[in-house]
Amino acid sequence: MLHDSIDTTLVPTFPPEVLDEVKREGVLREFQPGEPLFTEGQHDYDFFVVLSGEVRVTRRLGSEDQVLAVHRPGAFTGEISLLSGGPAIATGRAVGETRVLQVKAEAFRRMVAECTPLARFVLQTLVTRRQDAEAQIRQQEKLAALGRMAAGLMHELNNPASAARRSAEQLREECLEAQHRALAHDERLSAPQREVLAELMRDLQSATPLQPLDALAQSDLEDGLLGWLESHGMANAFSRATTLGTAGVDLPHLEVLGATLEGEALEVGLTWLEKTLLLTQLTDVMDASTQRICSLIAAVRQYTYMDRDWLQEVDVHAGLEATLAMFAHRLRGGVTVTRDYDGHVPKLWAHGSELNQVWTNLIENALDAMKDQGNLRVSTRLCGDEVHVELSDDGPGVPEELQARVFEPFFTTKALGKGTGLGLDIALRIVERRLGGRIRLQSRPGDTCFRVELPLKPELPH
């Protein structure tokens, strides 16, 4: 019989009578990191109860290994094939040094035949595990459907968006050329006056783009331009000042024009300059708008990992940025996003679209908690052979008595009708069962942090 130190603190999910039976029948075993407890296709392997460490269960699909489950202290594994009588459908390996109670296959089958407390407990747990597996399959199907829908939509949007952007660039060049041809044939201006206008336009085009002025500085600039235009008797002074100021024209530029152009020539020259700058501004808006569409298309492609293999090297930072782009409509209001990315974080092996679904659920929860008003902090760290990603918000926090339940299916702290209670459950399934990682929660009023701990590469069979 095993030492009495093995109690409900090590296996808290086991009822006392079940624990007594396991202690009576089980043998204490220790497995080294990567050592298999059972392998896919193996017959007559044993039943295991995890006391410390982790057991990662994987199944070979083609050239990849899919993580089916991660069993931590208090969980058991090895029961499915023992009950079905067939070979093992997956491989179970120790993650780190792992201690287990090993119950021989013959003893386990005898307990099932006698319907002992352990057998009844295992069968009840199997029902829950089957429901979990079905939920996981449904989630994978939803992600696959999202990928197919996104692929079709992005294909339809990408071609016209790219064409519109090319057209905007060409339109800008054609407008400038047409304006310069018109200036060259304008007999109301002398050759030196036309050259001054053309030179000013070239200077504005070739100038290094400056940082946008703040609202006060921009207003001061436009007020100065307005005063100059009014003092020289120019019509539509207000709208002209706005157009000229937005294009980077300042008082020294106008002084150069005023020294060369007078009276009607100044009016003609300013009209030409205003219309030329207005055309370039409109084409710039078109170019920026189509560029935004192209950026969103790229973000959706990154978010859904369209046309990628099932398991791929994933850039965590690119995935986080793609997910944040999906929430741009909620972030641009009263949410301040602070990024603290570790530049030493390498790519990790994962399911890209599923990992982005984790970021989606965590970010959406943070925004809901803050009611789209507050601070969202996103940070990454390389910790040994793992990447740790933290998503923090300064919302009201999760009450301490509810923190242990937040990952339960259908449990939600949101108002009635505002949440399904599945977001964190889905995130937990993806991180633990598909990626072999962990999610941890720390929360107090004004500081709630979810930390996702991901291995750089799942431990695969040797």
UniProtKB/TrEMBL annotation:
GO molecular function, one term: ATP binding
UniProt entry keywords in alphabetical sequence: ATP-binding, Coiled coil, Nucleotide-binding
PROSITE patterns: CNMP_BINDING_3, HIS_KIN
Coiled coil (UniProt feature): 123-188
Protein EC: 2.7.13.3
Domain Histidine kinase: 281-458
The reaction(s) this protein catalyses: ATP + protein L-histidine = ADP + protein N-phospho-L-histidine
Enzyme class: transferase
Highest taxon of source: Bacteria
Protein name, per record: histidine kinase
Organism, scientific name: Hyalangium rubrum
